[in-house]
Amino acid sequence: MLLSLPALHLQTSEYHPLLQLSHGRLGPWCSPTSSPAPLSREPGCGEGSWILVCRLLVPTQVSLLSMEEDIDTRKINNSFLRDHSYATEADIISTVEFNHTGELLATGDKGGRVVIFQREQESKNQVHRRGEYNVYSTFQSHEPEFDYLKSLEIEEKINKIRWLPQQNAAYFLLSTNDKTVKLWKVSERDKRPEGYNLKDEEGRLRDPATITTLRVPVLRPMDLMVEATPRRVFANAHTYHINSISVNSDYETYMSADDLRINLWNFEITNQSFNIVDIKPANMEELTEVITAAEFHPHHCNTFVYSSSKGTIRLCDMRASALCDRHTKFFEEPEDPSNRSFFSEIISSISDVKFSHSGRYIMTRDYLTVKVWDLNMENRPIETYQVHDYLRSKLCSLYENDCIFDKFECVWNGSDSVIMTGSYNNFFRMFDRNTKRDVTLEASRENSKPRAILKPRKVCVGGKRRKDEISVDSLDFSKKILHTAWHPSENIIAVAATNNLYIFQDKVN
Fold first, then answer.
1. How sure is the predictor about 41, in pLDDT bands with cuts at 50, 70 and 90?
2. Which SUPFAM superfamilies does its entry note (predicted)?
3. CB 314 within 8 Å of CB 329
4. What is the Cα–Cα distance from 225 to 173, expressed in whole angstroms?
5. Parallel, antiparallel, or unpaired: how do β-strands 427-432 and 438-442 relate?
6. Cβ of 233: how many Cβ atoms within 10 Å?
7. Which positions ≥6 away from 343 have C-beta within 8 Å?
8. Residue 211: what are its φ and ψ, rounded to 5°?
9. Residues 6 or more apart in contact with residue 192 via CB below 8 angstroms
10. Lowest-confidence region among 73-77, 358-362, 459-463, 499-503
11. Do the strands 104-109 and 152-154 form a parallel or antiparallel pair, or are they unpaired?
């Protein structure tokens, strides 16, 4: 399924040469509390195993705040969404996230909007529609702001979305821009009260002298309305740009990380947070690395990891000290001196870190590779997967067009047996950890016919190019897959390609 939304916009930081060079932050996903059931069969890293479920487009020309009042949000997909031949910068997708059951899928964009999709319920007449997602709710999460003390514009772009486990009929999610985290409640209302004693039918207060009888209010059915209301606003705690948020497994706290600090929040307290990591040096000229991503352990509420621009990962235990300035474990792979180049420091920067569902492994993504680390082995990763090694010869041109600073994300499948990450030319890669097979697939408008089977793509580095291959010189670096998500228990994936969101499911024979 495909959805039109804006591209990741990176901002220039002003306090470190490396950050200025990279035009942005050097740089989670809350796992279920229990490991999902194994998939019925491994997603095919073979040909023709994934099919396009459907395509959605995000509304861009309607007031999203009034949409709730004027339109049944369940019908937006049919009544409003249409294929646009253009996309504004505000439509670029900046984050994608399934909830813990996989029934909802949330996307955030650079315009500060959150669009939530709900999975189509299976029916006897439409069994094949089970995997489709339709628009459930759309709301404006963040607005552009201006910091007058620092003369700094604060973008409305949604950097991350994290779902909380559902405890009742309502859904809760966290969304953040560069400075402010918000807790949203998404709830349904299909009944309205009637028969007030002190109000008339239009809601105006009645004269008490005219009230002669007592009426019992009743609930009348109404068209379903999905309401999104901000329940908490966590602000004024970060000097630098927030790059990660992660919900703790105790579901009472969460953390937010920026370039130099990580803060711990309680969901019930908005006016204060506790600083658990601070790597800011006394003299900013001595700054050598920044925090790029952080995530809590899926089962142990005292443990978390964070990655850095130097390609290192630190595992911290909050039981050891209040300020986790000393790590418990330090994961780093020694660099091969023979591969040292001008770009080594840039391409080794970790852009994403994710715990496996089991909590045993950590996955990291740098510019060229995805690595899997065992928590019990710190000196080197147990698995290394080349995402687009054919770009090594193109690093100079990628540096000149700033693509070398793109921050790709990575995700596990529900059983931790397959990993997925993005690349250029709207390619995304899957690696099967058991069979060691891999596949390159493409998400494109040209191939976005419903139920279309994806064909594996291959990149030709040199020599004679085959008919089904694409030359590395023909790759479109303006088309990139930065954000992906995998259903927690099924073979359904969401892939964000600039302003388009594609949803695929594994083909079941």
1. very low
2. WD40 repeat-like
3. yes
4. 18
5. antiparallel
6. 11
7. 395, 396, 399, 404
8. -85, 110
9. 219, 220, 222
10. 73-77
11. unpaired
Looking at residue 269, its amino acid is I
Stretch 40-69: mean pLDDT:
50
Tell me whether strands 253-257 and 171-176 are parallel, antiparallel or unpaired: unpaired
Give 444's contacts (C-beta < 8 A, 6+ positions apart): 426, 497
Share of the chain above pLDDT 70, in %: 81
**Residue 356, pLDDT above cutoff 50:** yes
- Here the contacts of 339-347 (C-beta below 8 Å, separation 24 or greater) are 341/395, 343/395, 343/396, 343/399, 343/404, 345/18, 345/310, 346/21, 346/22, 346/399, 346/404, 346/405, 347/395, 347/404
Cβ atoms of 141 and 108 within 8 Å: the answer is yes
Average pLDDT (95-124) is 91
Q: End-to-end alpha-carbon separation of the chain, Å?
A: 20
pLDDT digits (tens, 9 = 90+) for 390-440: 999 999 999 999 999 999 999 999 999 999 999 999 999 999 999 999 999
Question: Do 501 and 484 meet the contact criterion of CB atoms below 8 Å apart?
Answer: no
Of residues 435, 288, 414, the one with CA closest to residue 32: 414
Backbone angles phi, psi at 350, to 5 degrees: -85, 125
pTM above threshold 0.70: yes
Structure tokens at 377: 């082995």
Amino acid present at 138: T
CB neighbourhood size of 481 (10 A)? 25
CA–CA distance, 460 with 393 (Å, rounded to integer):
13
Show the DSSP H helices in 250-359 as ranges: 344-347
| H-helix or E-strand spanning residue 175 | strand 171-176
Burial level of 4, CB count in 10 A (0-12/13-18/19+)? buried
Mean pLDDT (the chain) is 82
R_g of the chain, CA atoms, integer Å: 24
User: Does 509 have pLDDT greater than 70?
Assistant: no
pLDDT at 28: 29
Strand order in the sheet with 244-247: 244-247, 253-257, 261-266, 274-278
- Each residue's pLDDT tens digit, 308-349: 999 999 999 999 999 998 999 999 998 888 778 889 999 999
The DSSP symbol for 89 reads G
Mind listing the pLDDT tens digit for each residue in 159-211? 999 999 999 999 999 999 999 999 999 998 888 778 788 887 777 888 888 88
264: CB partners within 8 A, 6+ apart: 253, 254, 255, 273, 274, 275, 276, 318
Give, for 399, the enclosing helix (H) or strand (E). helix 395-400
* Tokens 């600073």 -> residue: 405
CB 111 within 8 A of CB 93: no
* Alpha carbon distances (Å) from 235 to 251, 259, 273, 396: 20, 16, 10, 40
Find tokens 């459930």 and name the residue.
Answer: 136
Cα pseudo-dihedral 152, 478, 53, 74, rounded to 10: 30
Decide if 163 contacts 107 (C-beta within 8 A).
no
Positive or negative: CA dihedral 439, 440, 446, 449: positive
